[in-house]
Amino acid sequence: MKGSKIMEQKKALVLQDLSCTGRAGLTQAMCALSAMGHQCIPLPTAVYSGHAGISGFETEDLTGWMGRALEHYTALDLQFDAIQIGFLNTPEQVACVLQAITLKKPDGFVLVDPVMGDNGKLYRICTPALVQEIEHLCSAANFITPNVTEAAVLLGYPPETAPDGLEDAKDWVRRLCNRYGVHTILTGLGDAHTVCTLCGQGKEITIVENPRIGAYYPGTGDLFAAVLLGALLNGDSIEQAAHCAAHFVCDCIAATSAQGTNPKWGVQLEPQLWRLLLNDKQAD
Prior knowledge:
37% of the residues lie in helices and 24% in strands. By secondary structure, it is α/β, with parallel strands linked by helices.
């Protein structure tokens, strides 16, 4: 049609685990990014039959395969509008991540979700060596999305440390921005009634609030990071993107909680994906 605007589809290379059941990792990213109009190129760091909260899972580390896949992408001269890094299986995978970052377009960006722990505890797989490598990756990012536990570790505190109120949390965000030279989106704050997300761009801190729904589901951090990435690719500001991601996760939690399903199977995002279509600005 004459005068119509043709937009090239954005491509994101996403490095994290493929948890086949339980709705975590790449299954979240592929659903969310596709619904928002982008192409998600998955690069699994490991395959899990179910996420770590599902007992008896089987897993396979993919470090060697990742390197070969990236060599193939380099030979194909592929370039990506964004690189997202989530769960890493071993410290050795950081070399693959750094190789992946070289495939970013000059005007692209890197988003690191520093997956290390939650609720004041580190995951069993998160060794001191892996923590050190994740700190290194945060310095190579444009955006980081730690929860409170991960933010504490990135600031050199014990993982059980939490901010002493909202003003202290704002100071945490400023310090993370300064220490790693990034925009910081801090999740998992709030009280018994409210969940807060803090967005930091240097000294400027904005707050996104949602009602707390009294239910915990694994994989919501992965979903938040994926929707945030999709919104940033659509041209949203960091505050708009955080608002979109936080509200979508809240909607998914509320809808899933109403169904009364076992939390270990994650949030039922599939019936809610239409909400992300409304945020797609590519047709504007």
